[in-house]
Amino acid sequence: MRALIIGIGQCGTKIADLFSLVDFETLAINTSRGDLEYLKHVPHERRILIGEGITGGKGVNANPILGREAMKRDLPVVMRKIGSIIGYEDVDIFFLTFGFGGGTGAGGTPILAEALKEEYPDSLVVAIGALPLREEGIRPTINAAITIDKLSKIADSIIAIDNNKLRGSGDDITHAYERINYTIVERIASLLALVDVPGEQTLDASDLKFVLKAFGSFATVGYAKAEAGRVKSLSRLIIKSFENEGLYLDANIESALYGLVAVHGPPEVLKAGDIFEALDYLTNKIKGKQIFRGFYPDPRERDVEVVTLLSGIYDSKSIEDIIITARNYAQSFMRAKEEAESRKRELLSGLPDFDDVYPAGDVYEGTFPDVDEVAKRLRREKDD
Ligand SMILES: Nc1nc2c(ncn2[C@@H]2O[C@H](COP(=O)(O)OP(=O)(O)OP(=O)(O)O)[C@@H](O)[C@H]2O)c(=O)[nH]1
Ligand SMILES: [Mg+2]
């Protein structure tokens, strides 16, 4: 299975940087030169500055129109770079990582997603985006809502990460972001690492692609881990990975179409009976009734790790909150704008124009006297 992780904007490139650290193929794209330089693990030749002519390499300050234009202008450079990375071996999935609330990621990601879909129709394009914190205010929320709408028509799945949910309490925000990014990469990297591992009952690239090819609906990744000696019921641990606190966003998992469960741990704990009990329960619970599974017994392992993927989700409070807030704001903004316009018309009605109050015909039609000439004449007259 071949995945290419493409980070767009600051949040996205920071996430791609962590994927690079764990040996994934990555590319980092940003409008800010400083943010690109700040990355630690993405190789320098895999960093692309876009929109320099528009921004001077200084970012787009949360304006997605500029982010979109930057990506459009430099799309040929970006696509050539991607082509040279890919070479002759197909990519199964492009993962585009970004923050929904900024300008570069929100504006640029849909443009790149569309170009990738066109150029590589057999590969999947999966968006992995962080949803803005509530306290960031209205603009990031609007950027997020509009970008969700656009990507839902282009991407195969949208793995939305709710920063509000994963933030926890106490941390300052920079630490919280670091921790969230780590969680994102840890889970997705463990899942990808388990695909195409030889063995019976393992997952292959086509299983993962089947689950993620879900017409631009939402997907989420769940996770549960425990020391093998402490696992009393494996079935319970698997079910826990699907529970709300384990997921990237608040979602009703019953609305999911497909699921995928990968269980990794010491062979004596991975009992088929327990696993099937959990899978039966979950298959009945989700709407689409299809769950793929992979078992990975590993005698060297001391922990049991469960990674789950649910896709085809449409019922998510995290997403709904953003869409409703953005729509209410847009509607009340449009109303306020109309009110301002009509109030302005009312206030200024009945005023005359200049022609109504000044008499016509006072306009001097001749040529103006030459001031130098007049001065010379006056001086001559004085001297005489
Ligand atoms: N999870 C996570 N979210 C982040 C991180 N950095 C920023 N965000 C979120 O992403 C949004 C901002 O996106 P950025 O990536 O900073 O913006 P950008 O795409 O670089 O665009 P501009 O800075 O406007 O050019 C905000 O809503 C933040 O909540 C991060 O490291 N991790
Ligand atoms: Mg930025």
Automatic annotation (TrEMBL):
This is Tubulin-like protein CetZ. Keywords: Cell shape, Cytoplasm, GTP-binding, Nucleotide-binding. Residues 2-199 form the Tubulin/FtsZ GTPase domain. Involved in cell shape control. HAMAP family: CetZ. GTP binds at residues 10-14, 103-105, 136, 163, 181. GO terms for cellular component: cell division site; cytoplasm; microtubule. Belongs to the CetZ family. Its main location: cytoplasm. SMART domains: Tubulin. It is found in: Cytoplasm. It comes from the Archaea. One of its GO terms (molecular function) is GTPase activity.
